[in-house]
Predict the 3D structure of the following.
Amino acid sequence: MEYATILIEKFINYLPNIAGALVTLVIGFWLVGWVTKLVRHAMMRRKIDETVQPFLASLVDVGLKVLLLLSVAGMFGIETTSFIAIFSALALSIGLALQGNLGHFASGVLLLIFRPFKVGDWVKIGDFEGHITEIQVFNTVLVTNENKKVFIPNGVITSGAIVNLSGMGDLKVFMRFGVSYDDPIDEVRKVILEVAQSCPQILQDKPIEIFVEALGTDAIEYAVRPWCHADDYWDVYFYMHEHVMKALDKHGMNVPFPQMDVRLHKDGWDFTQAKAGTKN
């Protein structure tokens, strides 16, 4: 009973501190969120690069929360110097256990310093291709053309090749079309050029390259290289493939395609070697 009485008395004595700490935590976390939003809005008003904004906001959020926890610890009578020492030791042990994450943090800093890409750029990183939407403390967020949200660790990004498809502003669209040997080269080139000139996304102030790339077994291979803005790449690619095929059909030009001849003999079926044929 004596111990119970002592515990109750201590609890009653600390009750104001506990209540104050809880109120401080609730109000403190609300204030941290408010300040973080304020910092974000301030960076937006000052037109700070969108690539840096999420990273700095995350650092502000984490730093304020650490200060809040230290303040709450002081309300319980804990010496902040001792608490900082304990926190430092804990941070060291956690840091040793999470060396990979610290590496991702350092990689995030390098991405912000050397700027191989920025928010909004269309990039290819490893097996993923899409637009950068956010550079976080440990990860970079990429949204693919299929609208899939991919979180890529920053350490993975800096340790491999990065292809920034938006880096130069404009891109060449590499395409290849096979047309029959029976169709004159100049006529085929004229038909493909007319299609390219009708595509609204192709930049008409830049050269549209159309040349014979190879003399294949069954067709002449034409390489087509128009220019477009980076974000219009796939629109141009699909437009050209559809409309070139329609234009070749309209002008009676033949596009080779695989076919197989089957001959019937008395002893059964005889499958001849597959070969390419042309549309008639």
About this structure: Residues 117-164 form a domain with the SH3 type barrels. fold (CATH 2.30.30.60).
